Amino acid sequence: MSAVPFQEPESHGRLNLSAGLASVSVALILVLLKLWGLGQTGALSIAATLVDSAMDLLMSAGGLLAIVYAAKPADEDHAFGHSSAEDLAALMQSVFILVSAGVIAVASLRRLLAAEPPEIMAEGAGALVLGASVMLTAGLVLWQRRVVRRTGNAVVAADSVHYIGDLIPSVGGLLALWASAAFGLTRIDSVVALAAAGLMALGAFGIGRRAFDALMDRRADPAIIAGIARIVERFPGVRGFHDLKTRTAGSRIFVNLHIELDGRQTLDEAHAISAALRREIVRAYPQADVLIHKDPVGVTRHPEDPRD
Questions:
Q1: Is 298 left (phi over 0), alpha (psi -120 to 50) or beta?
Q2: Order of strands across the sheet with 252-261?
Q3: Locate the Cation efflux protein transmembrane domain: which residues (predicted)?
Q4: Helix, strand, coil percent values for the chain (each to nearest 5)
Q5: Are residues 44 and 134 in the same domain?
Q6: What is the pTM assigned to this prediction?
Q7: Are 26 and 82 part of one and the same domain?
Q8: Which residues contact residue 247 at a Cβ distance below 8 angstroms, ignoring those fewer than 6 apart?
């Protein structure tokens, strides 16, 4: 077999860490801004985004710890590395999002069903807070998406999905404050908050499903599997292949593969083909950890070991 220990590129580690630090910093700034804005306005739309930002801060801090832990190299106790920490963190993120969505939904419904519409004060201050929130969140999301394109980190991807969901409620909150100031339509604030809760719940289910699939060793994206198959099919010296299996863990893809070679080759020649193929796969998919088994062309499986 041909395999070498997987090592995440140093640049990927720095990018993931920068995204984690940016997420924590933005979440902390937004919590402080929204606390001030809520005290000034009493608007439920701001309260909704405040609860969300507070949960963001907790999740971002946990995500940052997961990024640091997942970047640790493989050791004696964790021969395949620590990248599953990313999936565990993403799964916990989904639970936190669902809880915060439930809190916001209950508060929104209570206000909508109240006999008297809620009073919203200092709409200008609230608009200032939400405007700053939109700008900071948009900047963070742009950086996170760039990092995800480069590294495929699951924690950064989950954070990015959640912050994208934050943008819509914040814009909706701005509209609610405008409607309150211009027309006295204070109940729109509760409607916007309820919609925000629904979006958060949908995002949580998506994040949780992807994390659960990874923890259950679900195969890699079919497009990636097809891409690996094309590389193997066209590779010089490879007469065929079988038993191409993949699984994901965090941002890593584990690939197991049997290739068929000319049985008359020397071991050195067979190893050279296998090692070159592995390098080609990793060049195309840097997050891949590849293990290749070599079979002579036409070999039959031993009846007592059908998986040989």
A1: left
A2: 240-249, 252-261, 288-296
A3: 21-216
A4: 65, 10, 20
A5: yes
A6: 0.56
A7: yes
A8: 217, 218, 219, 220, 253, 254
- What CATH code is carried by the domain that includes residue 261? 3.30.70.1350
Residue 232 belongs to domain spanning: 222-296
- Residues whose CB is less than 8 angstroms from the CB of residue 200 and which lie 6 or more positions away in sequence, other chains included: 52, 97, 98, 100, 101, 104, 162, 165
Give the pLDDT of residue 61: 80
pLDDT 10s digits, 12-32: 778 878 888 888 888 888 888
pLDDT tens digits, 224-269: 999 999 999 999 999 999 989 998 876 678 899 999 999 899 999 9
DSSP 114: S
Q: What is the DSSP string of 82-100?
A: STHHHHHHHHHHHHHHHHH
Separation of alpha carbons 297 and 286, rounded Å: 29
Averaged pLDDT, 169-192: 64
